[in-house]
Write a structure and sequence with these properties.
Helix 1 crosses helix 9, helix 2 packs parallel to helix 3 and helix 9 crosses helix 11. By secondary structure, this protein is of the alpha/beta class. It is globular. It has three domains: about 100 residues, Helicase, Ruva Protein, domain 3 (Orthogonal Bundle); about 160 residues, Rossmann fold (3-Layer(aba) Sandwich); about 45 residues. Bound molecules: adenosine-5'-diphosphate (ADP) and magnesium ion (MG).
């Protein structure tokens, strides 16, 4: 996937779904007769007549675990993640959540905060990839009135807002290099300086950062500072992709069916075994977010109580990693150029780093279709 230009779409702080917004549904036939069923029994050898019983077992397992901050999953992989989250929650240590997009990093960050002593205050969220780089500093650190043209009022930054609470720095791998330096200072000194004010303000903030990027690779591309990486990499938690924990898929499917049957007023009794197995074979490049969207779409069009959840045909091509040399070249050039903030020429410019003459690089960029994204300032 090519690293695209930074999105400049607001809202800056992404709205997060709060966990625990699902209320169990009770079916008239959802009584105790199936309660003894093995919860791990989806792939059991029981006959087709028992399909509905299996579905009910799964549904019951999901419902029993529903509640604030509940993260669905029985796989060893997710259980290990939850154990790590539980261990670190009690501390003030910095947490680094790593994993593909849609794997549940934000949900886990929320759970860590909710299990910490800071839970009485709301966790402050910021998506570092969604804010134009010209505004990110004042978003994070605040600014005094008149700090720059157009700064008409004083603005409190997210770090100050998160005092005595947790700040969730999402997509930290996309933080612009000059902001990385400032963030490093905050982490080292636990003090912030508002733009336009030389006075440092102390803040007591617990940091949880997340990224879908490979930070070590970003460091070799000069797009991420190594010193910042070491500061953040105190307690890394790797959240595994959904295709590596397919045993969680039936539970998640039922979790989302219950969520959407409630909001759409539709009732679902069973999902066929073939359908569920097909869902487990699909690689889910968008992970749990993609699965949730697929279930939502299926529930919108569902008629009857035994709907089939369609399997996405193919991962969208942009999500499949190309092995073509030209694509790999384009991706690499783009990363390096972005890492140099689009400075082609001069010492430490992109051309020098790539070992090319600037004109050669420019010609190649045109050929590869690499254009500097429109700037908003
Ligand atoms: N284990 C899980 N159980 C239930 N829902 C989940 C789980 N993991 C992720 N989700 C849901 O999937 C979606 C994507 O999760 P999110 O935390 O935003 O992923 P990421 O931050 O890694 O991109 C959200 O709707 C989230 O509530
Ligand atoms: Mg996310």
């Amino acid at each position: 996937m090519f690293a695209s230009g930074r999105s400049v779409i607001s809202p800056f702080a992404h709205s997060a779904e709060r966990p625990g917004d699902v209320v169990p549904i009770h079916h008239p036939n959802d009584d105790d007769q199936h309660a003894a069923g093995p919860l791990g029994g989806y792939r059991s050898t029981r006959g087709h007549d028992d399909l509905q019983a299996e579905n009910l077992d799964l549904r019951r397992e999901v419902q029993e675990r529903l509640g604030p901050g509940v993260i669905v999953g029985r796989s060893a992989a997710i259980q290990r993640v939850l154990e790590q989250a539980r261990q670190v929650a009690a501390t003030d240590s910095t947490v680094l959540l790593l994993g593909e997009t849609g794997t549940g990093k934000e949900l886990i960050a929320t759970q860590i905060h909710e299990q910490s002593s800071r839970r009485r205050r709301v966790m402050v969220r910021i998506n570092c990839a969604a804010i134009p780089s010209t505004l990110i500093e004042s978003e994070l650190f605040g600014r005094e009135k008149g700090a720059f043209t157009g700064a008409l009022a004083r603005q409190i930054g997210r770090f100050e807002l998160a005092d005595h609470s947790t700040i969730f720095l999402d997509e930290i791998g996309d933080l612009p290099p000059d902001t990385q330096v400032k963030l490093l200072r905050v982490l080292e000194e636990r003090q912030i300086e508002r733009l336009g004010s030389p006075k440092a303000v102390g803040v007591d903030v617990r940091i949880i950062a997340a990224t879908h990027r490979n930070l070590e690779q970003r460091i070799t591309e000069d797009a991420f500072r190594q010193d910042l990486y070491y500061r953040l990499n105190v307690f890394p938690i790797e959240v595994p992709p959904l295709r590596d924990r397919t045993e969680d898929i039936p539970l998640l499917v039922w979790r989302f069916i219950d969520e959407f049957s409630r909001s759409f007023g539709k009732r679902v009794d069973a999902i066929s075994r073939d359908n569920m197995e097909a869902l487990q074979r699909y690689p889910w490049p968008g992970n749990i977010r993609e699965l949730r969207n697929v279930v939502e779409r299926a529930m919108i069009v569902a008629v009857g109580n035994n709907p089939t959840i369609p399997i996405p045909a193919q991962p969208p091509s942009s999500l499949r990693r190309s092995v073509k040399l030209v694509d790999v070249e384009k991706e690499h050039v783009l990363r390096v150029v972005e890492g140099c903030r689009w400075r082609i020429r001069g010492v430490d410019g992109a051309a020098e780093r790539l070992g090319l003459r600037p004109t050669t690089l420019e010609t190649r960029m045109t050929k590869l279709g690499i254009k500097r994204p429109g700037r908003d300032d």
